[in-house]
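User: Please look over both lines:
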Amino acid sequence: MKVSPKHYATALYEITENSSKEETEVLAKKFAEVVFKQGDASKTDDILKQFEKMWNEKNNIVKAEVVSAHKINEKELEKIKQHILKKTSAKEVEVEEVIDKKVLGGVIIRYNDYIINSGVRRKIKEFTKTIKKSK
């Protein structure tokens, strides 16, 4: 029987949900052995992604990606976290900061199904479209 990564992740979540740290380590090891015995080792990354998604949903955690050309200071990151907390009702926001030199300025924030793009490149494109329409 084929088992999807989502089904594996659900099973892992259910068996570890109310376990202590020590119990969770034992259960996770046994779980991994089952996955390998079933010949599904190649699904491990997808299982972990599904598990993390499920864990975050159940624990009201939002993962966000903040993309900018340069490292953002802690004060600004905290403002971004607070904005996302207000918009989502999450208990916690985990931010992954990505440095991308292609971002001319500003930031791009991705969380849940939302993208907030305050990058200069987007603003230039919008300005160019406005100019072209006015001709």
